[in-house]
What we know:
By secondary structure, the chain is an alpha+beta fold.
Amino acid sequence: MLSGVITxxxxxxxxxxxxxxxxxxxYLRELASEFKVSTNSVRTELNNxxxxxxxxxxxxGRNVYYxxxxxxxxxxxxxxxVRKITGIDRLAHSVIDRLGNLExxxxxxxxxxxxxxxxxxxxLIGNIDREQMEDVVQKTERYIKRKIRTLALSRKDFEDLRRxxxxxxxxxxxxxxxxxxxxxx
Length: 185
C-alpha cells in the first residue's frame, strides 16, 4: 500500500520497524541484516529520515541507534499509516468493539518488535468468550490478510505470569483501566 507513495522498500521497512513500536531502537547493521539488503541502502534511508527529523539517532558505544521521533509533527500520521498497512488498527477496532469483557489487548511476538512478518500474536486480558473471539479473529484475518494467534488470559493469570518475570516484550493496543500496567514495566 505504501509502495505507491514511498518508492523505497527499505524506507518502508524502516518506518514499519520504528513506527509500529516507537520505543524500539535499531542500528544500521541490525536493520540491514533483518531486511536482507546492503548497509549502504539502509544508511542512505536512515540519513535521509534523520536529516528530515523523522528519526532521531543516539550513539551507544560503537553503534548509532535510530528510533522514531515522537516529537515530529508527522509522527501521529506516520504511526497511523504504519498501523493501517500492517492491519493493526483494524485488528484493535475489531477486538475492542466485539469482545465486551476485554480489559486489555497487547501485541506480542514479532509485531511488538516492529517486524511485519504476517503473523500477529495478540494477548487478550479479560473474561473472553472463546467462540466469539475465534469468529472475530477469522473475520479480521480475511480482512487484513494476516494470520492472528491469540492468547486469552484472565486478569489473575496475567498478573501471575507478570510476577514470574519471564514475560515477552508486548506493545499495548488498548487498556480499559489504568490499574493494568504494561508487562514490560
